[in-house]
Amino acid sequence: MAKSEYIIEVNHVSKQFEDGKFALDDVSLKVRKGEFVTILGPSGCGKTTLLRCIAGFQVATEGDILLNGEDVTEMPPHLRPVNTVFQKYALFPHLNVFENVAFGLKLKGVEKVEMERRVKKALKMVSMSDYEYRDVDSLSGGQQQRVAIARAIINEPEVLLLDEPLAALDRKMRADMQLELREMHKKLGITFIYVTHDQEEALTLSDRVVVMREGKIQQIGSPTDVYNEPKNCFVANFIGESNILDAVMVKDKLVHFCDRDFECVDKGFGEDQEVDVVVRPEDWYIVESQKSKVDNDDNPWQLHGTVQSCIFKGVHYEMTVLTENGYELMVQDYHCFEPEMEVDLLVKPEDIQVMAKARLCNTFEGEVLEDNRVLFLDGEWDISDRTAERFDIGEKVEVEVDFNHINLQDDEEDGTLSGEVHFILYKGDHYHLQVRTDEGDDIYVDTKDIWDVGDRVGIKIAPSWIRLYKVESEE
How far apart are CA 38 and CA 16, in angstroms? Predict the structure, then answer.
């Protein structure tokens, strides 16, 4: 069999737990030998489960995992050519540093002279040469992490798996360890798979970043590509600060948002199509208002607004600007613009990122009931007389509801259904929410009301805002 060009291949892997929930949902990933790949995402996205499936600590429900072209899906962890560094280090408190690092070699029966040589080499690589006989409990968190890494690399694995190894360290120590890990990766030349929820860490360390959400891969790319060319709103919002706005693609290289047209470099979206745009805060050019100095016809500045707040961030100032047409934008600049100051903004075409919308409205499967009602989302909803008269009782239908026609209630008892705010995205002049019902369905809501993730809500929809469409026959 020809040797695969990939050291790791994850093919359509899913992991379902006993409660029926999927930690991984049809995940595929290929990693080349020597790469530094970071799996990035919020808590509960499946990144650690994916790492544990590669390591062999968990077995995939579906799909297969290959190492060097060999199927290891059912292979126990100790037979795989990988080593894992855990967040909590998992050092043996009754053994000193030398004994902890040498533990794997002892199990393999390596001779004492060779063992000492390899332990000293591993400790030198992690800058712990003078700590061989120290108790591990006497070490700092960063030193314990170095010992855990030395213990992992001493076995010369082909792949090193690291599960949030720097999470317990303070910011300064974490930054130092990031640089050391990067240098260590270059020296060792082995494949690193690194799990983290820290976006800055992922961008700093990686050759490629894998962004995950709710058990699915959202995007795979270089740190530059993921930051500058996000595939969807989640990636744009999760990786760094962003201005994410509703927009309309007027035509190729022309997009409309914030109530005006902007030239851009994107094309292929069609004409008059709803899209999302991303403008990073650092990509806005900001100056004191030119209105009194420049004739409107000659004014190159695209938006006019008033500074609402200004915060010094160490290397730049971060300002919130409210445009005269009601959009709130985040702007970063090396110069300070004080609150109440009138300013003008400009963004270059190449700094506007256009993305296709994941959905244009809420869409559900439904069934028409008696008394002008329709069943969907495990609830019965009133519909207008005019809508009901076009369908037969018992007929299967497609139900559509616009994002801004979902009404959320403070008291969940006031809604036809109840649920919990699951995700919030600010879009300049409103919030776009993902609300998960108690039955596990997702509803998307546009609102100007302020909610927090985890808020319990009631869900109401007025009969006039429910649209029904006939289900096309598959024949």
Answer: 23
